[in-house]
Design goal:
The chain is mostly helical. The chain has helices at about 15-35, 45-65, 70-75, 80-105, 110-130, 135-155, 160-175, 185-210, 220-245, 250-255, 255-270, 275-300.
Length: about 300
């Protein structure tokens, strides 16, 4: 007899299970820099390759256990869905690579900035590409975020490319993901399946040239690389379940947990410098997010026509 899982709400409402799933996922993502810092002596491409390879058995095992592999088989047989899967796979691999590099090279604050800006970039993309109209408050929030990036660029004499790369890659990833008519867990497995071939090729090249950190005697580096599968797949799949059991507005507020934790880890654990420009830019971002969240909540609570 199958044990019943959490019930999906019939109305647009929050559930305790959904809140627990989402907070757990965002908390795990918030602590992820601590794990990635242990891999800082390895090339980012090698870490990303192992994130792909060791996520595959976890994601596949979960879908097989849940008996939800039908959509995946259909996607693999449909050229259009497979092409969209290649696009999302490329975007998520870029995002992972920049993130791993940022943590390893003491740019965790840029990673936090990138994920703070992301929801504002997403509404900008929706307006630019999907024709959605922006409210006045949303325009103000986007302007504040752009101003914060400008402050950082002027102070450093260069654009904070790591933060922008994370924002842009994740924003387009989320946009492209909407074109995949399969569930998030199936979509994730499709992406890692697509990425497995180049990941295996790269790992094989490293092994052949003696540059691999993954050895069969299973030292510390090998175990850390194996663990990349857990720290990659588990939070994403927990989040996918939580998102189904929460209102959009609740998810919108909870998404700030991870970048806030990354920010705190960067400043208090990694002791990255928090200079004058960041003292100006980060409050501007936080103000933009408050304005954005207030606008979003007001829209969600407004009576719907019809």
């Amino acid at each position: 007899m199958r044990t019943p899982g959490p019930q999906i709400p019939t109305a647009n409402q929050d559930t305790p299970q959904g809140l627990a799933f989402a907070v757990t996922a965002y908390g795990l993502w918030g602590f992820l820099p601590l794990y990635m810092k242990l891999l800082a002596h390895m090339p980012a491409a090698e870490v990303v390759a192992h994130r792909v390879l060791w996520s595959l058995p976890i994601a596949a095992g979960v879908l097989i256990f849940l008996r939800r592999t039908g959509d995946l088989r259909e996607a693999l047989r449909t050229p259009r869905m497979l092409a969209m899967g290649c696009i999302t796979a490329a975007l998520i691999s870029i995002n992972w690579g920049v993130y791993v590099w940022a943590i390893a090279t003491d740019h965790a604050l840029d990673a936090a900035l990138g994920y703070y800006i992301n929801p504002l970039f997403s509404i900008f993309l929706a307006a630019l590409l999907l024709g959605e109209r922006l409210s006045r408050t949303q325009l103000v929030a986007i302007a504040l975020a752009a101003g914060a990036v400008l402050v950082l660029a002027l102070e450093a004499g260069r654009i904070p490319w790591a933060a922008l790369a994370l924002t842009v890659s994740w924003g387009f990833y989320a946009l492209a993901k909407k074109s995949l008519p399969i569930g998030p867990n199936q979509g994730f497995l499709l992406e890692v399946l697509i990425l497995t071939i180049p990941a295996l090729a790269y790992v094989g090249y490293l092994a052949a040239t003696g540059a691999s950190h993954f050895t069969l005697d299973f030292g510390r580096d090998a175990w850390l690389l194996l663990g990349c599968g857990l720290v990659t797949a588990v939070p994403l799949m927990i989040y996918a379940n939580g998102a189904k059991l929460l209102r959009l507005s609740t998810i919108g507020i909870l998404q700030y947990i991870a970048p806030t934790m990354i920010f705190l880890v960067a400043v208090f654990v990694f002791e990255e410098p928090f200079g004058r420009a960041r003292m100006i830019a980060f409050p501007m971002i936080w103000a933009a997010l408050v304005i954005y969240s207030w606008s979003m909540l007001r829209q969600m609570r407004a009576p719907q026509p019809g």
